[in-house]
Amino acid sequence: MPHTARPTAPPAPGVPLPDGLSRVALWTASAHAAEYGRPAPYVRDPWAAAFVRAAGFTGAPPGDGPLQRLLPDWAVVRTRFYDEYLVSAARSGCRQVVLLGAGLDTRAFRLDWPADVHVFEVEDPALLAFKEHVLDGAPPSCGRRTTVGADPAGSWGGDLLAAGMDPGRPTAWLCETRLYHLQPHAVEDIVAAMTELSAPGSAFGAECVNAGAASSSFVAPFLEALSTTGISWHWQLAEPEGWWGQHGWDVRVADLFTLPYAVDRLAPYLPLVGEAAATCVFLATGTVRGSGR
Prior knowledge:
With 293 residues, the protein is of the alpha/beta class. The chain has one domain (63-288): Rossmann fold, CATH 3.40.50. It is built from 12 helices and 8 strands. The radius of gyration is 18 Å and the shape is globular. 44% of the residues are buried.
């Protein structure tokens, strides 16, 4: 991974974070900041602590159940998984990368990209303004980075094209956590737009909530606590392969117990939660139908 000095951004008066899902981005940043302090971190995000500090953030996911205690380590597992997916997709020919709902994602700066990769970040303009304040002109590790100030749940396709995205070239898409916070009809619209803009050879990654686990004793208390913050998990899937297949994508769901870093981080929780820790969500990746990949 590229080596970057740890930034020390001050608080950001006049550059406030928008309400709502920016809180989720800060929960992830907090997990990344703690991970970066480990002797051998699975995710190296030197900007994470600066985001938390600039926001004056001291919160955590609501409640105190087993899922809440697992979430910081889960955020690290998920991030590492999609780090590897994106770099692999880029090295396999996807020289365009689109982060839908980029939040405080710093992959454009911290991953070891092929030199000609162009990373697009689609996000709320207010959140992008806060992010740029903290990044303070840091150079990306990819060939080019472009921010697209648009609602990831809205009509962002035109803005993305205007920013230089070429629908005739293979693209690696990532909707890391945004989709399950949206209503199903909004997810349908996003995936339709993504599919329309995907040339043969394109890939995607998205975390999906397992509908079969949402009412379990492991997940339900967290969802109840989460709803008090105004944030919910609206979109859930029982069979991700079938759903994505109907929308033009061949999908794979990761077996977490084949990933050494996932086993390392989840194993301490297994006596408490059993395999529910690994089945309450799906880490899905796939390729557009007919891509031959």
